[in-house]
Amino acid sequence: MSLISAFLKQTIYMGMPDDSVLKREGTVTPAPNFNASDDAAVLDKAIKVKGVDEKTIIDILVKRSNDQRQQIKKAFQHSSGKPLESALKNALKGDLEDVVLALLKTPAQYDAQQLKLAMKGIGTDEDTLIEILASRNNREILDMKKAYQEEYKKDLEEDVRGDTSGDFRAVLLEILKASRTEGVCDQLIDSDARALYEAGEGRKGKDCSVFIEILATRSFPHLCQAIDLEMKGDIDSCLTAIGKTLKTRLSFF
């Protein structure tokens, strides 16, 4: 399967008009009347009770935002003198343990873990690399790279470079530069739309370098407008598929 088909047609997501939309996405919202110390105490009791009170552990962690869970971790460490992750790891097992420990990671830490797993062992889980790297903004990419370095003492870009090849490697490394432009450049919308068309529909084969340059470096709102403009005429089926997933992160996932 070609790079354009695998990376762009099937899975690339372009974000929302601005970050304010992102804040309204998802179903987990900050719990009202939140108190990290109280939650930490309840979790400590649930962990120590005979048989482990799994229901209480689940009820607290899934109904708190990620930021609130990070505060609970700090409160638990302060009150008990040990990491919440260690206490839960000793108390739980199986899939529940995996899910609960994942909930305690920051988004950047979780992304870093999944990228590491995608490149572990023989073969590469390209779908995971695409899903994560193609759907993160500049700040998320930078945070992810930092988390990867802290956890694995390795450079994410170097691991990606060593585990991929060709145009696929090129586009991932371009994304990892975290150099997407901010906002919309009106002067470039028309030329970008035309360049994408000519690199795909307008020629035999596809010029991946053009797709990489534009789709990996322009802001998501800019790309939304460029793709919408080109869709007014004949459009490469690749761009049509991209356009269907341009609007929101929810439509991608």
Task: Give structural notes.
- There is one protein chain.
- By secondary structure, the protein is mostly helical.
- It folds into three domains: 37-104, Annexin (Annexin V, domain 1); 106-177, Annexin V, domain 1 (Orthogonal Bundle); 186-246, Annexin V, domain 1.
- Helices cover 65% and strands 0% of the residues.
- The protein is built from 17 helices and no strands.
- α3 crosses α5 (66-80).
- The chain is elongated.
Topology:
Blueprint: H1 3-9, H2 19-22, H3 36-48, H4 54-62, H5 66-80, H6 84-91, H7 94-103, H8 107-118, H9 126-133, H10 138-152, H11 156-163, H12 166-176, H13 186-199, H14 208-215, H15 220-230, H16 237-244, H17 249-252
Helix pairs in contact: 1-16, 3-4, 3-5, 8-9, 8-10, 11-12, 12-14, 13-14, 13-15
Briefly summarize what is shown.
The chain is an all-alpha fold. It folds into 3 domains: 37-104, Annexin (Annexin V, domain 1, Orthogonal Bundle), CATH 1.10.220; 106-177, Annexin V, domain 1 (Orthogonal Bundle), CATH 1.10.220.10; 186-246, Annexin (Annexin V, domain 1), CATH 1.10.220. The chain is 65% helix and 0% strand.
First-residue to last-residue Cα separation: 21 Å
Oligomer: single chain
Given helix and strand content, the structural type is mainly alpha
The topology string of helices and strands comes to HHHHHHHHHHHHHHHHH
- Low confidence ranges: 1-22, 233-243
Fourth-level CATH superfamily of the largest domain:
Annexin
Number of domains: 3
> Biggest sheet: strands, sense, closure?
none
